[in-house]
Amino acid sequence: MSKHLVIPQKIYILVFVTLLLLTFVTVDVAFYDAGWLNIYIAMTIATCKALLVLLYFMHVRYSPRLTWVVAGAGFFWFLILIVFTLGDYLTREVLTKPGF
Questions:
Q1: Number of domains into which the chain is organized
Q2: What ranges in the chain are assigned the alpha helix state H?
Q3: Same domain for 32 and 53?
Q4: Residue 28: predicted pLDDT
Q5: What is residue 2's predicted lDDT score, i.e. its pLDDT?
Q6: In this predicted structure, what is the pLDDT of residue 87?
Q7: Alpha-carbon distance 17 to 10, whole Å?
Q8: What is the pLDDT of residue 97?
Q9: Per the domain annotation, does 99 fall within a domain?
Q10: Domain that holds residue 84
Q11: The overall pTM is greater than 0.90
């Protein structure tokens, strides 16, 4: 059985405050019109927040390498689903009403 690692409460508070700040940044950025960059900015902030939750609140940062492999496999599977969904969506023809 592995030894239980006690993580200081200060780290959890710091990560929580960082998540709150990133949420406020997301809301603030949503009010600015950056054109086509809006989606990339929002996704970058969301990825940073998801990474913080994964590493600290799900304890992957202090876990054995097998946990890292399983988390990476889940992320890889998610990318496969996104790529195939976008591939299907982007290659469909626009349906129009007959006679137009």
A1: 2
A2: 9-30, 37-52, 65-90
A3: yes
A4: 94
A5: 62
A6: 87
A7: 10
A8: 67
A9: no
A10: 63-92
A11: no
Report the distance separating Cα 52 and Cα 85, nearest Å. 26
CB proximity list for 61: less than 8 A, separation 6 or greater = 55
| The token pair that represents 33 in the structure block | 């019109």
List CB contacts of 25: < 8 A, sequence separation 6 or more: 45
Kindly state the tokens that stand for 44: 């970058």
Question: Residues 86, 88, 93, 97: is their CA dihedral positive or negative?
Answer: negative
Are 71 and 59 in contact by the 8 Å Cβ rule? The answer is no
Rounded CA separation 45/96 (Å): 37
The residue whose two tokens read 């992320």 is 75
pLDDT computed for residue 66 by the predictor: 94
Show the low-confidence residues of the chain (pLDDT under 50). none
Is residue 17 one of the residues assigned to a domain? yes
> What pLDDT is stored for residue 92 in this prediction?
80
Q: Are residues 12 and 40 in the same domain?
A: yes
